[in-house]
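Narrative of activities, Objective 1.

The group set out to show that a structural description can be obtained from nothing but a protein's sequence at a throughput compatible with the screening campaign. Below is one input-output pair from the validation batch, recorded exactly as produced.
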Amino acid sequence: MSASDTDPVRHHMERLAAEGVDVVRVTYPDLIGTERARDVLLDHLPAACAHGLAFCRAVYHTSPQGDTVAVAGGLDAGLPDISVTPDLDTLTVLPWEPGVATCLGDVTDPATGRPAPESPRDLLRAVLGHWAAQGLRPVVGPELEYFLCEPAPDRSGGWRRTSDAQGVVYTAGLRADPDNHLLRTLRLLRDLNIGVTSGNHEYDGGQFEINLTHGEALEAADRAFRFKAAVKELARAEGRLATFMAKPFNDAGGSGFHLHLSALDDRDDKGVRDDEGGRNGREANAFDDPAAPYGLSATARHAIAGVLAHAPALAALANPTVNSYKRFGPDTIAPWLVDWGLDNRSAMVRVPPERGSGARFELRLGDAGANPYLLIAGTLAAALLGIRAGQEPPAPLEGYGYDTSRSAVLPMSLPAALDALEADTELTGLLGKDFTAAYLTYKRDEVARFQRHVTDWEFTEYGYHL
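Output recorded for this entry:
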């Protein structure tokens, strides 16, 4: 709906007031996928919808440490505004904060009236426009892991895992979660209406996975973004830290962000777009074909080939931090080779056994620190390039993977991944020149700051002996 349409705004205000809400929190993702927001008193919602909320565009260029990176359009332009308009279709009440509802915001550049080039949500919208031109609507199912931590002033970093229990993967209850964090979190997230379905303890102590139902790509990205923000906020309320950092501890594995991807076919039996919703009015899974190799349609196989072909560049979005690449390596169960397999969890791209309406592939490359919008946009852009090219993937991996004699190695550092992204002009052509330039500048500043920083490891390794 149009946020400036007064009658619907008033309708939402009346509904929220009846539920005891007097504040609307308008949120949007920054470049790294963290939540930026403003609380708006309910009486002032019409003005926010009509005129937008002004923020400095350099919010997209601000590092986690508060530095402003010299990205084009920010410092060099005198720190101009962006405008954020509430998307009232995404309104929901916050179950844990009385009197507060929340919605996402759409970000525009007031000078042009167009989406801000750095806006992750609008980047995904642009990529989806290319899929729509093919008569396809991608469907995405996000899977995210995180660690729950408690204060530990005596530890490096000031935090420790809430449990050191081992061997408790795929469990629930007090065995690995002594105070039922998972149950409390599941129930509150259910009431947030973001499509949470289930959860369990993961491989390492204090590590959890909560699953979200699949949905069309933008809606799935919105829910994954809100999920991460909510989990972190709920932990803060208890004096804890929930981190989606790729690998926060030396003595534990990493946290992944896996994507299950399929597509609905909006074309009729003659390949013409069908506005009634697919083949003769039926929503068909474009990845399913019982008569084709592996039971996967040409569309699915070509999409897999595209993801494999553009995987080095995609790593810059799927594994977006210096820390991300410490999740990779032998015996990590994290993919660091470019391969695919049939129901094979050691492959970068896994095809689960379901076919028919459940036909899909799972990209296991991403880590939990990835921005949901950028990970999904990059994956869809790579898959679409494969569909357009009609590429076929190589033979699927058989047996346990991680064999460099059979598969190419992904970039093993953030600088290498950023170089691969810059070199992949096909992929960046879909992502857009302005976004790519902003992202590369921002991330290369992160690398430079890390390379100048003296770490605890360096002092432990050299301080006494040299």
